[in-house]
Write a structure and sequence with these properties.
mainly alpha, 76% helix
């Protein structure tokens, strides 16, 4: 086993030595390392083996040197021989080189010149080639500068895009291109700022000039509507009339302005290029959304400013016109931007703005129109609202709520008309003389009946001069009612309403005029202190004729609206009740004033309640009162009696007034006689009082007003008559015996009344001559009075219990 191991080790050492001999020196490291990795002390044996191998090589070298030594010596000998020839040859070469250098020096110089030219040519060709690449870049950059100078920003952005994507990448290695590339973002920002500044200027400009744009748009809408109306009228009448325009400040269309407006539309008055330019710029820069948001935000702010009403706008129509012009101008611009741009504003955005504006406009008009008390101004406002709504409707905006608002404005218009006509009616009533209208000639008569539908065959048969029963205020009132209807009709024009609706509106407004204004004016007139009985009688006559004229007013409305009065929903005029109420109020005032006049005469009474004998004639104040009543009741003959209804009505008024006057006179006389402040009454005073009552009875029996049956009017004084008869006849036994019987002679005499008067007459003072004479002539009669007083008190106490 040991021999086998030694043999393997020797074989391995041989392989390593062969590998070392055949391998380069730099690669023997791993081979030598393997020697140390083998068995212990193997390197010693390897070293011994290596030393043996070195000795073998040395012997081989020595043998080889001995073999070639002679050849080496011969070679050295030959080299020594050649050295002399070589030195000679070297000298010849140097000489030849010198001569060659001298001969080629000029050629060298020329060659260097040629080389230098060739280099210059190459550089020039390279420069031209590079310049051909750079020149388009410089030209585009120069073009960019020119575009910026002439404010062609959108084209400048396109040029920048070409520079960045096409031209600059070709020559990006040059410094000037890097500078250009660095400047382009700054130029873009400048363009954004400039275009935004232009947009701000545009927004400010349209805010200032929106009223002009709106005025033009509204005028064109008015012209279009007027033209259509004229064409429709021409087709129906066969001729064309020049339309009248109502939107100019002085009511007429200036010819030069008309020619200008034929050329320029509302949109053409505004230069929208800043909007388009800014939109395109921001779109190219990829920032369109920012621009859209900014534009919409600014327009919303401007919308709020436009919708803010001017101070004292309600005072003049110009204030309303300027307000509407600004709003129309704003939305005309928005409509154009909506249609001319793609998405800058959307339909939803404009609808939102319009709904906001509509709510604000309606609120503003409601508030400001409520301050207006001039119907002409309200009518102008209505016309402006109609043109405003028609204009915006032509641009596609919904305006139904504006036409609904017109109904509220119509109510306001009616209120202002009613206030105006209230003043008109008051003035007519104040200037009226409340006497029948005198007519001297046929022309005057025709003039009156042309203003008022009066037809009375009896009056027509009379010769001139003659008098019409009503006063001057009747035809004036009738004419003013027609004027009111015309004024009310003006508001109904252009409201896009049917004839039936217009007819209904006219009738309702006329009813308000009759039931509220005219009725109130009549009531106030009747209550005025200076209106006497004659005037009240004339007012009754006037109201009767006005009531009869109501059917002519209905026909007048029917002729205007062409709506048959038989239509189911046709509103009727309430004039009948209005004038009936006025007559009743006048009648009541007649009764009241008549009684007040009676009270004034009664206050003039100056009885000497202690007189011994009567004066033998009625008192002066009473005769004056009776004469007044006679003349007053003659006035009632002027009440209208042209038909049976009026005759019965006039007779009833006269009879009621007469009966009321007699009752009031009787009551006043009774109160005078029984006044608690009157302490004593003589028989002479009773006789004088009886004479006055007799005159009252004579007046009642003289039939001051026809139509009373029998002694109906005299019954007003029956209480006084029975009381005075009782005291004049001194028939106490009959009174006391028949008291309580239905057929008693003194049935109307109340025991308390008789007792009160008797107490006044039984005063035992010396001034009472009547009882002094009783005591002298018949003392038993005084006892009788005492007995009667006791019995009357007994009756009074019995009644109270």
């Amino acid at each position: 086993m040991a021999d086998t191991g030694s043999l393997e080790c020797v074989t391995e050492h041989e392989r390593i030595l062969q590998e070392i001999e055949s391998t380069e020196t730099a690669c023997v490291g791993p081979t030598l390392r393997s020697i140390y990795d083998d068995q212990p002390n193997a390197h010693k044996r390897f070293m011994e083996k290596l030393d043996a191998r070195i000795r073998n090589h040395d012997r081989e070298i020595e043998k080889m040197c001995n073999f070639h030594h002679q050849g080496f010596v011969d070679a050295i000998t030959e080299l020594l021989k050649v050295r002399a020839d070589a030195e000679k040859l070297l000298g010849q070469v140097r000489d030849t080189n010198r001569r060659l250098q001298e001969a080629g020096r000029e050629v060298t110089v020329q060659t260097e010149d040629v080389i230098r030219c060739r280099i210059q040519q190459r550089n020039m060709a390279t420069t031209v080639e590079k310049m051909q690449l750079c020149i388009p870049v410089l030209e585009m950059y120069s073009k960019l500068k020119e575009q910026l100078e002439v404010k062609r920003y959108y084209a400048a952005l396109k040029t920048m895009e070409q520079l960045e994507k096409v031209y600059i990448p070709r020559v990006s290695q040059y410094r000037f291109c890097q500078i250009m590339a660095e400047n382009l973002p700054r130029l873009r920002e400048e363009i954004k700022e400039i275009s935004m500044s232009d947009l701000k200027d545009f927004l400010e400009s349209i805010r200032k000039h929106s009223d002009k744009v709106g005025e033009t748009a509204m005028r064109q809408a008015q012209q279009h509507r007027t033209f259509n109306s004229a064409v429709a009228k021409q087709s129906s009448t066969g001729h064309y009339t020049q339309p009248s325009y109502s939107l100019t400040h002085n009511g007429q269309m200036d010819e030069e302005m008309e020619e200008d407006e034929e050329i320029l539309t509302a949109q053409e008055l505004v230069d929208f290029s800043p909007v388009y330019r800014c939109l395109h710029i921001y779109t190219v820069l990829g920032d369109r959304e920012t621009f859209e948001n900014y534009y919409r935000k600014q327009r919303k702010k401007q919308a709020r400013l436009v919708l803010q009403p001017h101070a004292n706008m309600h005072e003049t129509v110009e204030g309303y016109r300027r307000y509407f012009n600004q709003i129309v101008g704003f939305f005309v611009v928005e409509d154009h931007v909506l249609n001319a741009t793609r998405g800058l504003v959307t339909k939803a955005f404009t609808d939102e703005l319009w709904n906001m504006a509509l709510a604000k406009i309606i609120a503003v008009l409601r508030t400001h129109s409520s301050y207006c008390d001039d119907p002409d101004l309200v009518l102008e406002l209505k016309n402006l609202i109609v043109i405003f709504a028609d204009t915006l409707q032509g641009y596609g905006f919904p305006v139904t709520r504006m036409f609904d608002l017109l109904f509220e404005v119509r109510d306001q218009y009616n209120e202002t008309l009613l206030k105006k006509w209230a003043l008109v009616f008051r003035e007519i009533f104040e200037l009226d003389n409340y006497s029948p209208i005198p007519v001297e000639t046929e022309e005057e008569y025709k003039s009156v009946i042309s203003r008022f539908p009066f037809h009375d065959p009896e009056v027509e048969k009379q010769d001139f001069p003659k008098k019409l029963p009503m006063s001057q205020s009747v035809p004036q009132i009738y004419s003013q009612v027609k004027e009111f209807i015309y004024a009310s009709l003006k508001f109904s024009e252009s409201l896009h309403r049917s004839s039936t609706e217009i007819d209904d509106m006219l009738r309702k407004s006329t009813n308000l005029l009759l039931t509220r204004i005219l009725s109130s004016c009549l009531q106030n007139l009747i209550k005025k202190p200076h209106i006497g009985l004659t005037e009240l009688v004339q007012i009754i006559i006037n109201s009767t004729h006005l009531e009869q004229a109501c059917r002519y007013l209905e026909e007048f409305i029917t002729n205007i609206t062409n709506v048959s009065p038989e239509t189911v929903h046709t509103t009727r005029l309430y004039g009948l009740s209005t004038f009936k109420d006025a007559r009743h109020a006048a009648e009541g005032e007649i009764y009241t004033k008549l009684n007040q006049k009676i009270d004034e005469f009664i206050q003039l009474a100056d009885y000497d309640w202690g007189m011994a004998e009567s004066e033998g004639r009625a008192s002066g104040y009473l005769m004056d009162l009776i004469n007044f009543l006679r003349s007053t009741f003659q006035v009632f003959t002027h009440l209208p009696n042209n038909n049976n209804d009026h005759a019965s009505m006039s007779g009833k008024v006269a009879q009621t007034a007469c009966m009321s006057a007699c009752k009031h006179l009787s009551t006043s006389l009774m109160q005078m006689l029984l006044d608690s402040e009157l302490k004593q009454v003589s028989m002479g005073a009773v006789q004088q009082f009886n004479l006055d009552v007799i005159q009252c009875e004579l007046f009642a029996s003289s039939e001051p007003v026809p139509g009373f049956q029998g002694d109906t009017l005299q019954l007003a004084f029956i209480d006084l008559r029975q009381l005075l008869d009782l005291f004049m006849v001194w028939d106490w036994s009959t009174y006391l015996a028949d008291y309580g019987q239905p057929n008693s002679k003194y049935l109307r005499v109340n025991p308390a009344t008789a007792l009160a008067l008797l107490e006044k007459m039984k005063d035992t003072s010396k001034k009472n001559n009547m009882f002094s004479q009783f005591r002298k002539n018949d003392r038993d009669k005084q006892k009788l009075i005492e007995t009667v007083v006791k019995q009357l008190r007994s009756l009074v106490n019995g009644m109270s219990s």
